Amino acid sequence: MSEVVQHGIGGGSRPDSAAVEDRYPTRLDHAIEPIPRHEPVVWGTVADGPLSQHHLDGFSEYGYLVAPETVSDDWLPLLRHEIDRLAADLDDDDPRLIREPGGTIRSIFEPHLLSDLVAQLVRLDTVLPVARQLLGGDVYIHQARINLMPGFTGTGFYWHSDFETWHAEDGMPAIRAVSCSIALTENYPYNGSLMVIPGSHQTFYPCVGATPEDNHDTSLVAQNVGVPDQTTLTKAVDAHDIHQFTGPPGTALWFDANLLHGSGSNITPLPRSNVFLVFNSVDNALTDPFAAPRPRPEYLAARGAQAVT
């Protein structure tokens, strides 16, 4: 039996005096059993967008979908140049610029607000209609970033569910968000490409350990809070296996907000980069954080729920 707590809301579209059920308690002082997912995975139908029933069924079962040629070849050099421009233009103390411990750039947040080109990318016919179809209506950008994994020095991302963080630290009430990772470079099995645990999106894995003050200051480089323990991960892999995302630039990986995923470090000479877009349903607006003292900054979690048009 999962724990349920009541949560007072200070943000989003509901009045402050309202309370919303926390169906996914996490960052606890003791371990509890995994919680079955409450929401559907796919909210739309074949009539709502470009994905076939086969694709929708696969996404529902596995929690992810690989979409080749989401971005055409003529876009790729423009996007790579845009990354270089953003990296050069942002001040070193800009909080949207995240660096590895060694100094190389790891992530650039809010590229869709810093770049007209990335803003256009969000609205491509191969991107926005897919998000609307999967989430069953209007969507907004909850978070966007460019991820860079340079050769030799790029470090990985430990196993985690994005929703666990967005729920605990941003106040996302329900699992009704989807991520789109668009590869700008070749993804090989050996240059730190993303791994997923297919089917793990159907279960929420509560984590132990309170959220530290300003956790995002360190978690964006190395996430140590809000990650499942090794026993939980072992059981999840035993039940579901591990799949790895590989493929040419321009390919997109769509995956459910609650899918367990991670990546190893890149010790090859071959860099890896992607544009990472998180779409949330406008009907899933953020509230107060469920397990953090205050919301993360706007560049990590947009609180306006303004639909992308």
From TrEMBL:
The keyword Iron applies. Residues 1-20 are annotated as: Disordered. InterPro entries: EctD, Phytyl_CoA_dOase-like. Its cofactor is Fe(2+). It catalyses: L-ectoine + 2-oxoglutarate + O2 = 5-hydroxyectoine + succinate + CO2. Keywords: Dioxygenase, Iron, Metal-binding, Oxidoreductase. It is an enzyme of class 1 (oxidoreductase). GO terms for molecular function: 2-oxoglutarate-dependent dioxygenase activity; iron ion binding. Its EC number is 1.14.11.55. Pfam families: PhyH (PF05721). The keyword Iron applies. Belongs to the PhyH family. EctD subfamily. Involved in the biosynthesis of 5-hydroxyectoine, called compatible solute, which helps organisms to survive extreme osmotic stress by acting as a highly soluble organic osmolyte. Catalyzes the 2-oxoglutarate-dependent selective hydroxylation of L-ectoine to yield (4S,5S)-5-hydroxyectoine. Homodimer. This is Ectoine hydroxylase. It comes from Mycolicibacterium neworleansense. The lineage of its organism: Bacteria, Bacillati, Actinomycetota, Actinomycetes, Mycobacteriales. The gene is thpD.
